[in-house]
Amino acid sequence: MKKVAVYGQSYSISAEKEIQILLEVLEENNIVCFIEKKFYDLLIEGGILDKKYPTFSHFSDLNSSFETMFTLGGDGTILRAVTYIRDLGIPLLGINTGRLGFLATINKKNIKESVELIIRGEYSLQERTLLSVRTVPKTEEFTELNFALNEVTIARKNTTSMIGVTTNLNNEYLTNYWADGLIIATPTGSTGYSLSCNGPVISPDSKNLVITPIAPHNLNARPMVISDGTSIQLEVDSREKEFLISLDSRITTVPKNTNVFIEKAAFTIQSIIPKNQSFLQTLRSKLLWGEDTRNETNL
Ligand SMILES: NC(=O)c1ccc[n+]([C@@H]2O[C@H](COP(=O)([O-])OP(=O)(O)OC[C@H]3O[C@@H](n4cnc5c(N)ncnc54)[C@H](O)[C@@H]3O)[C@@H](O)[C@H]2O)c1
Ligand SMILES: Nc1ncnc2c1ncn2[C@@H]1O[C@H](COP(=O)(O)OP(=O)(O)OP(=O)(O)O)[C@@H](O)[C@H]1O
């Protein structure tokens, strides 16, 4: 491993020690490290860095010669890191200095061991599907960043009334959901917002998506798992003039006559799974799946 990128959010430095440990390990292994510019400026301002580092500010500053992107933060940081990687195929590894860290799987207590494991190549890659979104009329915000790793959410705005989301799959009418909104989630996002709306857990290597209504007002609107080769068309009926579309943590308002077209993105994200970790382990440890006093404590 010769060159990596490091990304963290530039709100506040919540992980000084962890950042220094990561940079030390990379230095010890003679790995060139490029740091995201806003994060770098925050670290310089905070006196965290003892030397200068090359920086990157945008997707166009990166290329496939970067062998890994390390993130320092929680899941939201991972979701934002994806906007720098896009279709470059740079494998992503999250060091969890946030709260849950479902996607950011490296425990901040063993950064050195985990990063050395990665440097020795003791990991596998988990390919993760993304969604791409197109609207008619066009939505400015989706010109460049029109993809999501977790989910695309359609939600009501400034109204207590439900919205109606007319849903077609491959141009065939499915139903009109009367709800607070509708989530189209990837397997990765199935354990995010969709899970909170009673959606199923989908293993990361499944070639599926899930359509999960948000608080639907009927007893028969259930989450529906579909093939990830499906093209999804949505139209919204609302008493308000606008509704919300969010792609992961990025949210925007669109006029109510906006038609939304969602399908699997043309590229995937590679997430690094260290040899001593797995999706099932994360499910058990982070979402306490199967936690039951009757089960052996061999988690
Ligand atoms: N009620 C909810 O559960 C709810 C509501 C809104 C958004 N979200 C999720 O939060 C994501 C944005 O993350 P954020 O950190 O910017 O917001 P945030 O800080 O509000 O995170 C929401 C929680 O969801 C967890 N999370 C995010 N992605 C996950 C995933 N793929 N699997 C399991 N847990 C996941 C985060 O760790 C965090 O604990 C959205 O993509 C959506 O999936 C959840
Ligand atoms: N909007 C914000 N305002 C202030 N600080 C923020 C904001 N978003 C993130 N942060 C800081 O950045 C850290 C990383 O945020 P991130 O969204 O990645 O993770 P998290 O929400 O803390 O954890 P997780 O998403 O895993 O539950 C947070 O712990 C918080 O300290």
Automatic annotation (TrEMBL):
Its EC number is 2.7.1.23. NAD(+) binds at D75, G76, R80, N150, E151, D180, T191, G192, Y193, S194, L195, S196, A215. One of its GO terms (cellular component) is cytoplasm. InterPro entries: ATP-NAD_kinase_N (IPR017438), ATP-NAD_kinase_PpnK-typ_C (IPR017437), NAD/diacylglycerol_kinase_sf (IPR016064), NADK (IPR002504). Its cofactor is a divalent metal cation. It catalyses: NAD(+) + ATP = ADP + NADP(+) + H(+). Keywords: ATP-binding, Cytoplasm, Kinase, NAD, NADP, Nucleotide-binding, Transferase. Gene3D superfamilies: Probable inorganic polyphosphate/atp-NAD kinase, domain 1 (3.40.50.10330), Probable inorganic polyphosphate/atp-NAD kinase, domain 2 (2.60.200.30). It is an enzyme of class 2 (transferase). The keyword DNA repair does not apply. GO terms for biological process: NAD+ metabolic process; NADP+ biosynthetic process. Its main location: cytoplasm. Pfam families: NAD_kinase, NAD_kinase_C. It comes from the Bacteria. It is found in: Cytoplasm. The active site is at D75. HAMAP family: NAD_kinase. Involved in the regulation of the intracellular balance of NAD and NADP, and is a key enzyme in the biosynthesis of NADP. Catalyzes specifically the phosphorylation on 2'-hydroxyl of the adenosine moiety of NAD to yield NADP. NCBIfam families: PRK01911.1. This is NAD kinase. It comes from Polaribacter cellanae.
